Each structure stands twice: as C-alpha cells, then as structure tokens.
C-alpha cells in the first residue's frame, strides 16, 4: 500500500484549486437513474469514490463515460438491466445507498444491500426507510438487503425526519420527484450538496422548492428529462486546505472557494486568529499573528460546524495556545485520528464524544496510520506543521476524497511525496 511522506517545511504560499464536491457528485450521479435521457455532470472530482459509484451505476446497466480527463461524466440510464445494488459494491462505500430512492421511483422496485458499519460508526438506514415508506413504499430486510417495492407507484406525503440526515434527505427528495402529488419533507438536511442536487433535479424538470431550508416541498411530475449540471465546489476540501496556512503560516488562496460554503468554519478560524478573506477568485487565508488560539468546536448538521472538518480542526488545535474542547455529535466513533496525533506529540484526551486538546509548541514527525478519509488528511496537515518527517500509511483512504493532494500541496511549497509500494 502506498504511503505519503511529509516533511515540515515552514510557511506555505500560493494558490490551490478546489475541486467539485465528492459528496455532491455522489448524489448527482444516481439522479441519472430518474430519467431515460442523458445527464452530464461537469467539474466532477477525480476520486476513487466516483469510480465506485460509476461501477455501481454500470452494474445496473447505466452507461457512464468520463471525458476530459475525468472531469465530465456523461451518463445514460436508458437501458437499465438490474435494480439490485450488490453488497460487494455497497460495502466499499455507504453512498451507494443513494440509488435506492431513484430506482424505486422509476421502476417501482429496488434491492439495495445494507451498508453495514464503517470505521466512524454504525450508520444505519432507518431514516431512509421511514421516509420512503411514508411515500408508500413497502420495504423489508432479507439476507442483508433492503427489498423495496411500490404497488401503484409512490405517492406524495408529509413526512418529518427524526434527524436531518443528509443521505435520507437526498433519497427521499429524489424519490418524491416522480411520486404522484406533493411531498413535504420536514426537518430536511440543509447542506449545500442538497441544494446542488435540487438545482440539478430542477434542470431535469423536477418541481421543488425550499432547498437549503429545513422544509423541502416536491411536486411530483410524470417524467424527468436530460440535463447538464456543474458540480458545486467541495467545501470539505476547501476547509481542509484553508487549514494549511493556518497551521504552517504563509498565505494561500483557495481558488473557487466561497464564504457561504464554510461560514461556521471560517468563523471558528477567525476566533482562532486566522483571517479568511473573500477575493474575486476564491478565499485567501493567513494567520493574523503568530500562534493560533484555542477554540471550542461542536459538530452539527449544516450550517453548523461540519463533522467532516473535525479531524483537520483537531490537528490545528494541537499546536494552539491553550486548551480546546471538540465535541463530535454526528458520528459516535470519529476520534481515531487522536491517538495518531498523540504519537506526533499532541496532548489529547478523549472521553466519549468529547476530545480535550491542550496545544503544544510544535508537533514532531512520526510514522502514523489513517483509519478514514478525513483522519488521513488531518495527519498530513499535522505532518506539514511538524518538525521532521511524518509517514502517513493507508493512503487509499485519501484517494477516496482528495484529488492530486501531493501536487496541490507541493504547489504552495510543501515538502510532500507519495511513496509507491512496489
Ligand atoms: C453524509 C456525507 C458524509 C458526512 C455526513 C454528515 C455523503 C456521501 N456523505 O453522510 O461525508 O460526514 O453526511 O454530514 O454525502 N443516521 C441514522 N439513520 C439513518 C441515516 C443516518 O441514524 O437512516 C445517522 C448516522 O448514523 C449518523 C448521522 O445520522 O450518525 C448522520 O448521518 P447522515 O447525515 O445520513 O450522513 P450520510 O448521508 O451517511
């Protein structure tokens, strides 16, 4: 398995282009299943998770071709041959469950493997099932698979989710686009990726309002047509690279970045002593003074502080002046990066869903291991700011969510290389 070697190399300066959002692309791709006509996505990120979703759609009989170095995905679901999402693909990536709503809406049936647990928590699908059942689906669990069907098609309904799940909102909204009548989804998730999905569905002919608020209303239509859509900027990649100059010093401009995508995160950086400025091209980030201050963080659904930036923020807090408390409220087991950061000299105590971090002057390089996507990039950030060499192994996690990470960080002066496992 490849690893990444990082050597602390002082301040970082220059520009980093931010890719299209992985999480938006992973819900936009299954939207192709809702129509017989082609759906084209531009600004798609070049990531292994996108390849996994491509393989899943192809296993259902969809055509997916990637053009212009993978940034354009041309998809067609004209001749689907299967409505079963197999365990072998779903177990690799939980977002595979996003084919459930579209398949059910278009064909009246779907069989989707339950994803099972993953490193960061149990991640069940009860909220997806409850929402689709409210639209009239009959769903049962057999042999590890959800078997869903409708008699006479899905019907619009008023449904309130017990928790604002991102994936459940996406599945329910996609299913409701082809249901008979009106669906009102209350306590819906408000993430920018959901707004992006709705904008694309609207281009395909769906009638939806309220995206970005906690009540989304969908007026079902008979069919959806083809469209071309540009994937929104990846706010998690953006936030991750915003931390690079915050941790190492210097000034970095994140091209394509927009404040509205990272408002609560930028507010925390501001409180920590890091300035974030909107420019014509993106966001410019630099420390206001020397060492950053400690700040407390609680992860919450959007517009709160994103769980997907918690590990990276913890890396920043490791060298902050003072003690910070990070509370993880979305996933029950998302502090696996903490013991690895401790190996680099960090002072962190974890109790349940709370991590208390007391900043040290400087981290020290060490061999460390990543256990999930965001944990692995937090270790790279820590390595950039540490004294000496850090080797991050198991980088296949990184390939799921960060394209050209070495090239992007080298471009602003980082000393980083990928060591190929021969
Ligand atoms: C999405 C993102 C992921 C991010 C997460 C929270 C994608 C592909 N992934 O994941 O990067 O970390 O949002 O912002 O977009 N839950 C249930 N029952 C359900 C569904 C979820 O209990 O039916 C729980 C989960 O276990 C978790 C919490 O709800 O504790 C949040 O999950 P959810 O918002 O659904 O996250 P995902 O859509 O899986």
Automatic annotation (TrEMBL):
Residue intervals of the Enolpyruvate transferase domain:
7-409
Transferase: present as a keyword of the record?
yes
Domain of life of the native organism: Bacteria
Q: What is its main location?
A: cytoplasm
Reactions mediated catalytically:
phosphoenolpyruvate + UDP-N-acetyl-alpha-D-glucosamine = UDP-N-acetyl-3-O-(1-carboxyvinyl)-alpha-D-glucosamine + phosphate
Enumerate the GO terms in the molecular function aspect.
Answer: UDP-N-acetylglucosamine 1-carboxyvinyltransferase activity
Which HAMAP family does UniProt cross-reference here?
MurA
One Pfam family, please name it: EPSP_synthase
Protein name as catalogued:
UDP-N-acetylglucosamine 1-carboxyvinyltransferase
Pathway(s) it belongs to: Cell wall biogenesis; peptidoglycan biosynthesis
Binding-site list for UDP-N-acetyl-alpha-D-glucosamine: 94, 123-127, 308, 330
What is the originating organism of this protein?
Answer: Ruegeria haliotis
Keyword set includes Cell cycle: yes
Known CDD domains for this protein? UdpNAET (cd01555)
Q: Which family does it belong to?
A: Belongs to the EPSP synthase family. MurA subfamily.
Alphabetized UniProt keyword annotations: Cell cycle, Cell division, Cell shape, Cell wall biogenesis/degradation, Cytoplasm, Peptidoglycan synthesis, Pyruvate, Transferase
What is the recorded function of this protein according to its Swiss-Prot or TrEMBL entry? Answer: Cell wall formation. Adds enolpyruvyl to UDP-N-acetylglucosamine.
Task: List residues, modification 2-(S-cysteinyl)pyruvic acid O-phosphothioketal.
Answer: 118
Which residues does phosphoenolpyruvate bind?
Answer: 22-23
Give the InterPro entries listed for this entry: Enolpyruvate_Tfrase_dom, Enolpyruvate_Tfrase_sf, MurA_subfamily, RNA3'P_cycl/enolpyr_Trfase_a/b, UDP_GlcNAc_COvinyl_MurA
């Amino acid at each position: 398995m490849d690893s990444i070697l990082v050597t602390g190399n002082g301040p970082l300066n220059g520009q980093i282009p931010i890719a299209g959002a992985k999480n938006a692309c992973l819900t936009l791709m299954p939207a192709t299943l809702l129509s017989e006509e082609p759906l084209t996505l531009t600004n798609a990120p070049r990531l292994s998770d996108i390849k996994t979703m491509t393989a899943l759609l192809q296993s259902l009989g969809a055509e997916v071709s990637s053009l212009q170095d993978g940034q354009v995905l041309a998809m067609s679901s004209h001749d689907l041959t299967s409505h079963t999402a197999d365990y072998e693909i779903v177990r690799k990536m939980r977002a595979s469950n996003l084919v459930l709503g579209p398949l059910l809406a278009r064909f009246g049936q779907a069989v989707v493997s339950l994803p099972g647990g993953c490193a960061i928590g149990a991640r069940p699908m009860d909220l997806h099932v409850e929402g689709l059942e409210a639209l009239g689906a009959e769903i049962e669990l057999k042999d590890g698979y959800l078997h869903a069907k409708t008699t006479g098609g899905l019907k619009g309904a008023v449904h309130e989710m017990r928790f604002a799940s991102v994936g459940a909102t996406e599945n329910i909204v996609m299913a409701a686009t082809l249901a008979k009548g009106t669906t009102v989804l209350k306590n819906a998730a408000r993430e920018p990726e959901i707004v992006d999905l709705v904008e694309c569905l609207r281009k395909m002919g769906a009638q939806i309002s309220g995206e970005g608020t906690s009540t989304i209303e969908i007026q079902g239509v008979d069919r959806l047509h083809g469209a071309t859509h540009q994937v929104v900027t990846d706010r998690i990649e953006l936030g991750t690279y915003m931390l690079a100059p915050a941790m190492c010093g210097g000034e970095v401009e994140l091209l394509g970045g927009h404040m509205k995508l990272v408002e609560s995160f930028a507010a925390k950086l501001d409180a920590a002593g890091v300035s974030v400025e909107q420019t014509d091209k993106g966001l410019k980030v630099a420390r206001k003074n020397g060492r950053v201050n400690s700040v407390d963080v609680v992860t919450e659904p959007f517009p709160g502080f994103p769980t997907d930036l918690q590990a990276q923020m913890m890396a920043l807090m490791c060298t902050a002046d003072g003690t910070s408390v990070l509370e993880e409220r979305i996933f029950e087991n998302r502090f696996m990066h903490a013991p690895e950061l401790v190996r680099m000299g960090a002072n962190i105590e974890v109790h349940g869903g709370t991590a208390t971090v007391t900043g040290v002057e400087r981290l020290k390089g060490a061999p460390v291991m990543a256990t999930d996507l965001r944990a692995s990039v937090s270790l790279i950030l820590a390595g950039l700011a540490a004294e000496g060499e850090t080797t991050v192994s198991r980088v296949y996690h990184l390939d799921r969510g960060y394209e050209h990470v070495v090239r992007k960080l080298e471009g602003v002066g980082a000393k980083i290389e990928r060591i190929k496992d021969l």
